[in-house]
Amino acid sequence: MSDNRMHLPEEMKPFIKTAWDKAGFDRVTDIQREAVPPVMAGKDVLATAPTGSGKTLAYLLPILNKIDSEQKNTQAVILASSRELVMQIHEQLQTFGEGSGISSTTLIGGANIKRQLEKMKKHPRIVIGTPGRVYELIQKKKLKMHEVKTVVMDEGDQLLLPEHKATVENIIKSTLADRQLLLFSATLPEKSKAEALEMMNTPVVIKLDKEQGKPDVAHVYLTAESRKKTDILKKLSGIPEFRGLVFVKDIGTLNVAAEKLAYMGVDAAVIHGDSRKDEREKALKAFKKEEVPLLLATDVAARGIDIKDLPFVVNYDIPKEVNSYVHRAGRTGRFGAASGTVVSIVNEQEEKRLRKFAKELAIEPVEKVLYKGRLNDVKTGRR
Question: What residue segments make up the domains of the chain, in order of their start?
């Protein structure tokens, strides 16, 4: 098996193998190895695996392999909770579908619906969209779900939250009984898992806690009073080659932190649920091009953002749920990266919550101090 394409199933079409080689992958990931065969076989699949472990390609490659480009109808619908995740999936689809003749389109809430209706007239074989807009087009009879063979719920934990659940269920009810339903997520609470299983037909259940060969992520924390947290951010931004995605609990706190940083002369980009499309794109571009050291974001806004080789994730606030901590941490040390560090800035109360999460996740966060522009151990003074 010297040829890296041999790590993909032999049944994969040539265009997929060509794109795989072009991407320079040397092996499939654990989730791809486990999920691709049942997806290709047409089975329902419920899969949980760490963020950054290659879940998107685990369902996308077998779907692309099964699409009949000669049939002029939508054959697969991929649901995602955020615009960013929809666009990220579409980008992957275009990369791995190159030369296949398989057309696709995105249906995102808040975007121009007339333009989307025009795109639907061209009979895209794959549709990727947010639940609200997808269901709107089903109701307008512009998306015929009885012709759809496969429905994917990407980041299924988010799609089964109250704000999306009823819409997602309506979308799935509009399909024929023999359709294939796939759910992929980094985390899935037991209640959501039970709800998903009820929708499925004898599914294959896959649960991977750790991706083999995945880079190690260091978990460290700095203690500070809440009002001093922006001072810590300023010092972190001064560390040579520091680049951090900073998670803030809500828009109000984020805006206050951004204003304080601006007053201190620290360049930071900002994205949140109220950001306009052009503002989000500008902020992401500046951060990815390393023009600013900090990107401040709320959890919802950061869903679906994939920043290659992101060295740091910063918890400006510790989330209330352990699953949110897992999702945040998964933004760094993504598959193929060398390593990553999660830095939590905690007050006394948050330190207790962090320790609780650490126990649940079997990780050991190390307390650090900022000294002379470096993160040093509290006791030894070493980095």
Answer: 4-207, 217-377
- Asked if residue 107 lies in contact with residue 134, where contact means CB atoms within 8 angstroms, the answer is yes
Q: Where are the alpha helices (DSSP H) in the chain?
A: 14-23, 30-40, 55-66, 83-96, 113-120, 131-139, 156-159, 162-173, 190-199, 229-237, 251-263, 277-288, 299-302, 322-329, 348-361
Q: What is the pLDDT of residues 102-133, one digit of tens each?
A: 999 999 988 888 899 999 999 999 999 999 99
Q: Looking at per-residue confidence, does 27 or 148 come out higher?
A: 148
Q: What is the pTM of this model?
A: 0.68
- The pLDDT tens digits for 276-314 are 778 888 888 899 888 999 999 988 767 666 677 788 999
For the segment(s) 4-207, the CATH number from 3.40.50.300, 3.30.470.30, 3.40.30.10, 3.90.1520.10 is 3.40.50.300
Q: What fold is seen in the domain 217-377? A: Rossmann fold (3.40.50)
Asked if residue 313 lies in contact with residue 248, where contact means CB atoms within 8 angstroms, the answer is no
54 HSE (CA, 13 A, CB side)? 24
Question: What is the 3-state secondary structure of 74-92?
Answer: CCEEEECCCHHHHHHHHHH
Establish whether domains 4-207 and 217-377 are of one fold: yes
Pairing of strands 126-129, 76-79: parallel
